Amino acid sequence: MSHRLNELSPTLDAFTQGKLSLSDLAIQWRSAAKAHEPALPARYIEVLERVLSQLESAALFTEESCSFSQADLVAALQQWLDKAKAL
């Protein structure tokens, strides 16, 4: 779809490797989505916000005490990105 969306894939690897903070990851993803808001359906923005919010919530708890798996949420971001690029 756009150069900005292509820049998001490396952020997932950097985040999972501990090289990028959750805050920075969320800022970059929200910024890229906002840059494409006219082209992205509103539902895409809603889903992205939900996944990012769940990821931010999961960071407040240990993996065992949280109902959201960080790995699953990162996978959901990758799936969102793949679908957004396909538009």
Molecular structure report:
The chain has 87 residues and is mostly helical. 69% of the residues lie in helices and 0% in strands. It contains five helices and no strands. The chain has helices at residues 3-6, 9-16, 22-35, 42-58, 70-86. The longest helix is centred in the middle third of the chain and has 17 residues, at 42-58.
Structure summarized in a few sentences:
By secondary structure, the protein is mainly α. The protein is 69% helix and 0% strand.
Strand content: under 5%
Please tell me what the overall shape is: globular
Binned, the helix content reads 55-70%
Class by alpha and beta content = mainly alpha
Number of DSSP helical runs: 5
The number of strands is 0
Termini distance?
Answer: 7 Å
Rg, Cα atoms, Å:
13 Å
Largest sheet, in brief, is:
none
Average per-residue pLDDT, rounded, comes to 88
**Quaternary organization:** single chain
Low-pLDDT windows of residues? none
- What is the string of helix and strand elements? HHHHH
For this entry, give a set of tags.
single chain, 87 residues, mainly alpha, 5 helices
What topology does this entry show?
Elements: H1 3-6, H2 9-16, H3 22-35, H4 42-58, H5 70-86
Helix pairs in contact: 3-4, 4-5
